[in-house]
Amino acid sequence: MSAPYPIDPSKGPAANAGWTMPNAPGSYPAQPGYGGQPGFTNPGYNPQGPYPVQPVSPGQPGAAFPVEPPPPYSAQQGFVGQPGPYAQPVYNASSGDFPIQDGNRGREEVPKDMVPNQFGASFSDKAVRHAFIRKVYLILMVQLLITFLIVSLFTFHTGTKMFVRRNAWVYYLSYVVFLVTYISMVCCSGVRRKWPGNFIMLGIFTLALSYVTGTIASFYETSIVIMTIGITCAICFLITLFATQTKYDFTGCGIYLFVAAMVMFIFGIIAIFTYSKILYTIYSAGIALLFSMYMVYDTQMIVGGKKHEMSPEEHIFGAIVLYLDIVNIFLALLSIFGGRD
Asked: Where do transmembrane segments lie in this chain (predicted)?
């Protein structure tokens, strides 16, 4: 291995001629006998003058070699350019999910457990609401069918008609059972929600009120009962259609309906003690109008989409309130149109 600098044999090793102190002012003199290594060049080095000022690298104190910018990106052998833009994500319109990127290709179907379901909540709410409406109206149809069969039996069968007329105690017993089951299911949420007790209570409630309705209908002419059933069905259908199609929100009118019910209650007590046919007819018309408004209110509460709506767990309660509205409309119309036997 050769020495970094050429050695002058005429000078001793301890002479160090031509060197000054490193911290001496001024420029460094040229080293004697130094001619550089062959094939090596040092740009910026001037043996006769001071060192040129080198640019300072950011973040490092003092002078340093110039920092060259990185060379521009160029394609390497076997690799063509930069990777192109990613493929557009595939939207799955049926699932309502966010699109996700799988490498450079979007998934055709997005698993629901991988991304938050942005629109799934609203779709799920609509599905739950539709299932709730189906349950309510299915239960209501069964209740109305039972009531219709009992009313028809008490109206068309002479033996049954005479039995219910002569045994008024069964009527009063049925009315008490109706009140007990109704108050229990309305006031106790556990009674109307816990299966199978809720359906048992609902069955007892329906049979009791059907007996009461059939007993009242047995005192009217058969033709009047049939006509009233038809009118009630038409009115209830039109009310349901109006409640579901109108843009007006009746769910905020509950307090007004309650006040109207209290007024009709007091008016009914007055009508009982006056024994006036005209007053009784006005009272019956008011009851029919009141429960028609209640049916609009209850229908919008069940269908939902308004300011207030019924919980999807209350399908028993929804069927009860609609059933009571229809039965009370029928009894009110029967007292208006009917003539007692």
From this structure: 136-157, 169-187, 199-218, 224-243, 255-274, 280-297, 317-338
What pLDDT, on a 0 to 100 scale, did the predictor assign at position 207?
Answer: 95
> Is the Cβ–Cβ distance between 116 and 93 less than 8 Å?
no
Segment 276-289, tens digit of pLDDT: 888 888 999 999 99
Residue type, 162: M
40 lies in some domain: no
- Give the model's pLDDT for residue 110: 43
Low-confidence ranges of the chain (pLDDT < 50): 1-2, 5, 14-19, 24, 33-36, 57, 59, 62-65, 74-75, 78-81, 86-87, 89-120
pLDDT at 229: 94
In a domain, 178, yes or no: yes
Mean pLDDT of the chain: 76
Structurally, how many domains does the chain consist of? 1
Domain range for 221: 127-337
Residue 46 within a domain: no
pTM: 0.65
- Distance set, CA 15 to CA 5, 9, 19, 177, 311 (Å): 15, 12, 10, 129, 105
Query: What is each CA distance from 308 to 121, 137, 300, 333, in whole angstroms?
Result: 19, 19, 8, 30
- Is 300 within the bounds of a domain? yes
